[in-house]
């Protein structure tokens, strides 16, 4: 088990470099109201993502980032923290947002390898499950992401 | 069962307006290489999302949109097609990307209500499960999204 706390890991990770329990901690992304509104106006133009007063009147009780914005920032932090050989290509994911992401949040992600399933048909290839928590500066979780991704051994096709 | 094919539905949907099997079909979003690279440079800066030649050399066999970009475009189309009262607030989602999204894709989404589970503790409130397929102009699926969302009856808190 390795605790890898470098926000920008410059290695390239192959299958033999990881084990269940390995943890990758990213750098930080400071959010603000302008980013929240800009993303929302392009992709999730609902009042509580666009306007403070509308946010106050909503279930969120204040301006909240789109969950898809939190997911996109998570990916940015994750690709820098866990540089997988041939790239991070997700087969499928599950996402939950336990609490809304706010304009004052400074986000980072903590990813843990939870399962490694070698391919039966293709040697040197495995499906790797990673749980990624997106946390703010107070350690409060904003998103939980479980991803399944293909990883390759050195020299595999 | 209602087939609602208006790309911009101007109604506001309450719990009593929907039933299992109801379907919502969105308008279209035409993608291009510039949008793919712009999103990727902000949120998923991997070579196969940023450069055609790098895409050719990758598992994708060509420039491919980030799955998170496909997800974000899906949300834009979905919020216009299924205007839920008090907003579309996802409790949790599952996502798979059966094939990469390409620069020449013109995307639309087709959402089907698959389950309605009334809240036991809060009358007039239910957890609604919706399956949303994101398809290109040839009907080829690019993403499957299953979302669980809160919906409210008229007059509920």
Automatic annotation (TrEMBL), chains A, B:
Coiled coil (UniProt feature): none
Cited InterPro entries: HotDog_dom_sf (IPR029069), MaoC-like_dom (IPR002539), MCH/BMMD (IPR052342)
Gene3D superfamilies registered for this protein in UniProt: Hotdog Thioesterase
Recorded superkingdom: Bacteria
A Pfam family assignment: MaoC_dehydratas
Domain MaoC-like: residue ranges: 30-122
Name of this protein: MaoC family dehydratase
